[in-house]
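DATA SHEET
Item: assembly model
Revision: 1
Owner: S.N.
Input lines:
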Amino acid sequence: MADVNFTVDGKKLTAPAGTILIEACRTHGIEVPAFCYYPKLAVQAACRMCLVRIEKVPKLQTACTTPIAEGMVVQTETPEIAQARKATVQLLLGNHPLDCPVCDAGGECELQDMTFRYGAPTSQYVEIKQHREEQQWSPVVFYDRPRCILCYRCVAVCGEGMDVHALGVQNRGAGSVIAPNLQDHLDCEECGMCIDICPVGALTSGTYRYKTRPWEMNHVGTVCTHCGDGCKTTLGVRRADDGMEIVRGDNRDKSGINGDFLCIKGRYAFDFANHPERLTKPLIRQADGRFATATWDQALDYAAKKLKEVRDTRGPQAIGVIGSNRTTNEENYLLQKFARTVLGTNNIDHHRTADYVSFVRALAGKGSRAASLRDAGTAPAILLLGNDPTEQHPALAWELRTNVRLNKAKIFVVNTRDIKLRRQAKAFLHIPEGTYADAVRFLGSNDSDFNGIEGAKDFRDALRAEQKLVIFFGSEFRGHDIDALVSFGLSLPEARFGCLADYANSRGAADMGLLPDMLPGYRHVSTPGPFAEEFPNLPQTPGKNLIEMFDAAERGELGALYVVGANPVSRYNIDPASLKNTFVVVQEMFLTETAQIADVILPAANLYEKGGSVTNSYGDLQLVKKAGDRAGVRSDLELIVRIADRMGAKPQQLVPFGRGLRSDSGQSRGAQSGEADRHTIWLASRQIEPKVSPFDPYAVLDEIERLVPGYDIERMNLLAGNDVPTRLVSVESITTPRRDLVLPAEDALFTSGTLGRYSAKLAEVHESHRSIPGATPTETAAD
Amino acid sequence: MPQLVSHPEEVKVISRRWGKGAADIDKYIEMGGYASLRKAVENGPEWVISEMKASGLRGRGGAGFPTGMKWSFVPKQSEKPKYVLVNGDESEPGTCKDHLIFLEDPHSIIEGTMIAGLAIGSKMGFIYLRGEYRYLIEIMDRALAQCYERGILGKNIFGSGFDFDAISQTGAGAYEVGEESALMESLEGKRGIPRIKPPFPAVVGLYGGPTVINNAETIASVPFIIEMGGAAYAKIGTERNGGTRLFGISGHVNRPGVYELPMGYNLKKMIYEVAGGIPNGKALKAVVPGGASCPILRADEIDIGMDFDQLGKAGSMLGSAGVVVLDETVSIIEFALRTIKFYQHESCGWCIPCREGTDWLKKTMTRFYEGYGTVKDIDNMSYLADNMLGRTFCPLGDAAAMPMIGFFKKFRGEFEAYIQANPAAPETQALVELVGA
């Protein structure tokens, strides 16, 4: 739209026509205060804090309701305006309990900020304050009614933003309160957006309330460890007896790929980190079959000795390696490098939740047609096949809803179930179970009928008229189904694609080559290209995949198995007895089904306890920052290096550290403060990153950037905390993997594999929703 | 049932069929009813709007916006259906005119609604009645049913191809819903809170369609204007204040009731002649000229013409023309408390200044009335009212603030004397004690 010229506080400004004054001001750095206004939600004009003086208009006007106009002259801070705002603050403070010293929001409160800014130092009233008891609406949402200033943001975000409509307003006038629409509890997705958006301490979090003061925490912006969307979550961390304790997860600065959004898992499900059953000492199985604690040296020596023994006596083919979809790219890269160059085997795999191998093959030469999560929020049209983003990809669901709401995007849904997103869909094709491939064939055909479904033809015709379609598909699509879907998409002018996987680094695990036939970047092991130049003696025949490894174990052909952060015994229903002749090393946080059959267990750090990077389902690369240390655990990266070292490998060849021009002693990687982050960027920008340690993930990232196709990213952008899209590059033809290698996680909104089992808060919410009539209980899957 | 009053000075336009059984359609038609509709259908929408503009009729709900102009704002073409809405949510304290129209002449409302519908190209009208007027809904519904029986409502009215439907709806007891956009929210089944304007109802109104919403009295004036012509109607009142007005006179007068008088009629004359003066030889103290939200006039200010402009100049408003007469026995303190209690109770609570402002005004005023007031309280209450004025979401905030400002300004002496008369009143407790110098 055309630009409009207007003047604010004497400054001549321009903004696109139709922009609301408050936004136009904020864009130019002029802050007009508001309680009820929240960007991208419907204007409410209830708080009257954004009153401004517009020339030639008799009364003060709300900046949130006034569109800018050519020649408009605006004053945002005059004595008259300040007085109006002060009067409003005075009115709000009248019944406010002023329990700031104990309030969760103390120090992070917009009412405090406004009182500070406009001043209301003397109490005007002698009447008794109106008080009401606090209410608990769900395991994670509490409402302290007297603190509420009735800005209605929570109602708006729950309704418009989440399409949940669990909140409303009860009573009228001075008796008004926010209340659940369903009597006394929330029937909702427990996302906590209401708490996030609350400008004061009225809505408080079940995990955080009355635990600490905001300034007593370090705030570490990192990536959520749960689903494949890769939301930024800011962890509030404080010191504890055994290292650091995460006391809060929130979306503090809204700077992540998730924008305003964060779901229940990113917000509350961090407590697995401090679960009492966390493994903090290495364990070695004794002759009597029981575990005994060991020192790190004993455990690492033992693991390395046995792995070396199997490699040297039974050959590299007798060793299997299983990686994780929740470890960092650096760890995954290092693990496959360790398997291939130290163990000498291609027997490496991971629990695949999506068929990225086929996706890459289908998109060969068209890597630029891969879609980012950001496209979900901007594309004019989206086709969603399979999956239920509301349950499995909450951030994607949020982006899609927001895109429909703000940009009138058209969503086409093809699903066997009546998923919630159908409410935002322009068209919904409800297909019978097991007919996704047929549906795609129909979309590309000129058939007049599909399974007799009414409107199928209209759906197809409308879809094919879209010029810029983004196609997201779930794990229902594997192998040749993906080829068919992509070739249908490529018949449309500018279609782009996103393949949905279930875990924080499912994509990264595949990209980094945790595959028996693929090197990092989907380069086939038989044609290693640049990898061969750097690492001589790479095994060039495909190894065993995950299922074949266990088959081999059953036949007694697998001498050793090295499992890093995975639980295949539970996930693939492996008979523990089949591994009785296999030496098993497991790096884990908990005594999972797989850990229980191990010979050595090495307690591992989780994603919140280390640095590195992860790649979300859509190929967006993001930095993971260490929130805190925990006594007794080590990062998988460190453990791999230490085992390799003990097997006689040179750490320097695994991790190219020591390449910084000069060291910067005194600054540690993964430090928590924003200052340290800025320092990292400063160092990187001058190419003096130290990398003095063999456990430095950045040293591995250097190699990833150099060798992995599609990962030659802008490092500075990544360090600044942004999401950086990687590219899908296919260099040669790839064979289609077995369909049963892909095993969807089957996680729903309140489950998250092993992490979910050990997150007390997630389990509590899960349980509370089971008890709601009509709710469908789901089993907690394990991984 | 209320007794009808009458006075020779009255000019009967809206009230011309009152007391004559016009609620029955046969009587109504016998007395010339639905002839205006026929005339309007014959002459077409543009003619209707031009007559309405010529009549000088201004909205009788309180704001006084010219009706013809309002109708002309409705876009000719619209994707969504257009609606006519009759605001019969009469709730302003001191106002009792609309219920008489519904009671005595419901067909004039239907006829006016249909003419408005014809003018703006709408096929659907809603007649919204105040929830407390339960006894009127039957009358209204019977009138509507009779219209359908006679083919006056429905398809192809008078064989002209004009289709129109109308239904009634009652509120649930909220003063706020008298505000036009809140009324639309209520009608749509939502909480009765106002909408952001613009867009105005003429462009985006009920269910998102262009909507004309008029006060019941405004709508009831329409058939007469169409019958007699806009110019003839305009001649009745004063300049820019065409026609007659239903004045509901209550309080300390000998003959309270609803009188239809020309716009601009002198207030003093209205009280002393039409309404028969103050009973028991008492002296007049003050008058609230247009319903509770209008700033009070002292006894020495009542020699004034009752129209929008003259009262505006005098610092008050014509509002809903509910004239409340107070004699010398009335305590302004008690009257102020009653007024603010009403607005505190009726504030919808959506915006901060009105929700909190009316509440603190009521709390302070209550304590003041109970004899625990201080001079500082008067200042605090003035400060509260001043800071509500012009800053609220909808006019209800102003409606609460304006009369209070009037009381504090015009009767400050009485407030101060009230404190003097209660010498036992303790000083307002200081919450913080300043120790030392």
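QC remark: Residues 182 and 193 of chain B are 5 Å apart (CA to CA).
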